[in-house]
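Exam revision sheet. Question 4 asks you to relate a sequence to its structure. Input first:
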Amino acid sequence: MSTRRDFLTTLAAGYAAGAFGPSLLAQRPAAAAAAAELTDLTLLEAAARLRARSVTSVQLTEACLARITRLDPLLNSFITVTGESAIAEARAADSEMAKGKRRGPLHGIPIALKDIVDTAGTRTTGASALFKDRVPEADAEVVTRLKAAGAVFLGKLNLHEFAYGGTSYFTAFGPVHNPWNPDYIAGGSSGGSGAAVGGRLCFAALGTDTGGSIRQPSAHCGLVGFKATYGRVSTRGVLPLSWSLDHVGPMTRTVADAAAVLQVIAGYDAHEPTSANQPVPDFTGALAGPTKALRLGVPRDYVANLDPEIQAAFSAALAVLQKVTAGSREVDFAPNADDRTMIRAAEAYAYHATNALKSPQLYTPAVLARVKTGEAITATAYIEARRRMEQLRRDGHPVFQEVDVLVAPTTPVLPIPLKDVTPDDGQQLRNVAPINLTGFPAMSVPCGFSKSGLPIGLQLIAPAWQEARLLALARAYEGATTWRTHTPSL
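Answer key, structure tokens:
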């Protein structure tokens, strides 16, 4: 199995030789600028151009691969780049569309996958030396759905090893760098997904979220990250961290792009025990939903002890939200942190116990230490925590009798410098991790930048199965601001 660096070298040579078509790396400045303009398109903008036949899937894919070749040595967002198969998939998409067959907005769109999502015939490593040569025989359910939608797969994205952390620093393939400032973390555990989409290396990516791992890196990389209700999106074929808390979801540049990806991957999977047999609404149609009657709640614990720059950005965002809703009030919302930590630790240890005992040297020390914290949890303690979690998910939270949507900063702190990373995630996941215990849908949308140019995220949370409510509010906020138009100057 060739390494990522070997492939990028081969890819660059292939482009220079014209192996994949006209070389984007060797084009004149005006042509190269045109290629860069393609990667600046949002997913739905690119889809519109494909529909109008003003661009081809091959051109979009080549533009992404050229940008990966040029910039990913700086970001380290990809573990495996599947350039040759991506070009083949793009050609097939172009051929279908030329014949009038269009599968939907993802048809011909280059995307990438967090490297814990199984892909048949392409390695899935979990960013761990333990699985560095692991090649699945079957696709994850979400990959099957994306293939049916005609998406083009660029490769597999780096992450915090086995998704067990919030920095994407501890990985067998080297740390991920933030596209807005490579000296800082991209967040985790879906840091590679955040860096790749934020860096305009792909038009969307899938991440996973067990304790905020879609929303926090989306906030740090200036993206929209969506964690739907637990059970809405199948996790079959995704390496587990904690079966009771794991979610899969989109990371994109706009709210509408997130809705388009969610529309494809959502839905009941009869072969996945945690999948819920719930009707899937029209998420794209929900974007135009009314928001003026929505009552907003601001959880007191989530706005305490904020970085001053995040406090200022959130206050400004709340002022905008109040204009498009019925207003806001402070509320109490504090799901049991001990239950969440206990469930995650126990289930992670159950999955890793044998390998952690037999091959501890193949784990990064930070993640191995975290895995071992689950060893001491008793069956009684785990069962009682699970019982309380199930009751919370069945009954809902009483706060939603008072308000319709909760709003808060996605993170209480800014991204930290890579040089300052420790095994402790600190406050990085404080505002996002509790939502996984509830199973409620939640998303992060861009709401500003620090004085040093680092992105800041706004988190929206709704009751179970109310993704449409979140999408309508997020789109209204996005339309009233200009944050989505900012681009990192890599």
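Marking note for examiners. The CA atoms of residues 225 and 251 lie 5 Å apart.
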